Amino acid sequence: MEIPAFDPKELEIVKEHRNAFGGVIPLFNTPVSVKENCRALAKRRPYWQPLGFTYDYVLFSPRVNPDNIARAFVYDGTFVPGVDNKSGGSDMFGIEWVYVPTAGGSMVKPGNPLISDAEELEEKVVWPDLDSWDWEASSKANEAYLGGDRFVMAWLLNGWYERLISFMDFEGAAIALIDEDQKDYVKDFFDKLTDFYIRLFDKYLTYYPQIDGFYIHDDWGSQKDTFFSPEVAEEMIVPYMKRVTDYLHSKGKYCELHSCGQLARQVPNIIKAGWDAWSPQVVLDADDLYEKYGDKIILGLGPVLPGENSTDEEQREAARDYARRFCNPGRPTVLSSFGALKPAFYEELYKQSRIRYSGK
Fold first, then answer.
1. Boundaries of every domain in the chain
2. 197-224 burial, b if ≥16 CB within 10 A, otherwise e?
3. Can you list the pairs that 283-287 forms with residues at least 24 positions away whose Cβ atoms lie under 8 Å?
4. Which of 112, 158, 250, 354 could covalently link to 6 via disulfide, CB atoms 3.0 to 4.6 Å apart?
């Protein structure tokens, strides 16, 4: 793939987008569409710096999946801003979630976990009937939402560890991963859960062929450290994640992991699990991660950037600095910034990243 040299005419603004965090993003006269640039990112050869959910990705979590209603996280063609995402209720496994307005999301109804020992997983888990969901109606309702030139990313909010937490609460799930009497039951459950997720994603790809990638949520750590050791993750979670990423890659889809926490020790496991990309939190050292792993996984980086009171020149210098550090052919990144950056930042970042990624 030949990336054309940067042409100053590309800086013509064809339209503007105001994101949910107050920033105005100018959209330039680019040589390819945003969708095509993100597809090139998956091959580690973007034309310019991708912006991820700041603009480039369409967040897709359809109402047809009960998890998204329970978790107050419906984003699809039926979403009504200001009305939706104030819900809760039963997820696809029948677990009750409670919407917490101050958090803007839901949590499992506390105090009564379905399972106290992993041995009960086989008996008590009721597997969803995917064929009973109204996929046809959802497909029709999302035709316009999933159209256009942006990169469609389908979300799954509860991965493997988070799904186990939903049944056992946090402490029970953490113990089950390391208790010799429970580990085999957890593995059996994760094996079946992986089969189920593959069937679920097959439904998604059948009824929403516009999907470009999957963004799967499975938090592994706190601000201080990982919840469990790298050895536990490698044994108990990585093999099942790898089955899903292998399946999605066989369908030509991009795979991004969302996993919060101080996970520096877990990055080799994230890579082993087959993820194309991972977005670390700012508690981690972006430069250190990029130096060690930037050629092995696409990092969604959110470095400290200028505040809204900064000058245009300060914004431009920050963009040049980001490009120097993180825009290198074969080692691309996604800018995960949710601040109110100015148009000057985006213009300079576009220009500098085009020059660096094209090598011209």
1. 8-77+111-358
2. beebbebbbebbebbbbbbbbbebbeee
3. 283/223, 286/325, 286/326, 287/325
4. 354
Identify the residue whose tokens are 């030139």. 149
Instruction: Answer whether 264's CB lies under 8 Å from 284's CB.
Output: yes
What is the reported pTM?
A: 0.95
Q: Is the dihedral of CA 311, 313, 317, 319 positive or negative?
A: positive
Phi/psi region, residue 279 (left: phi>0; alpha: psi -120 to 50; beta: rest), is beta
Taking phi over 0 as left and psi of -120 to 50 as alpha, with beta for the rest, 341 belongs to: beta
Amino acid letter, 314: E
Quick one: 240 exposed, middle or buried, by C-beta within 10 A (0-12, 13-18, 19+)? buried
- From residue 69, alpha-carbon distances to 4, 97, 154 in Å are 44, 9, 15
With b meaning 16 or more CB within 10 Å and e meaning fewer, what string describes 260-292? Answer: bbbbbebbbbbeebbbbbbbbeeebebeebbee
Sign of CA dihedral 351, 300, 46, 159: negative
Task: Please count the CA atoms within 13 angstroms of the CA of 26 that sit on its side-chain side.
Answer: 18
**The one-letter amino acid at 352:** Q
Largest CA distance in the chain: 65
Residues, the chain: 360
Structure tokens at 179: 């208790």
CATH of region 8-77+111-358: 3.20.20.210
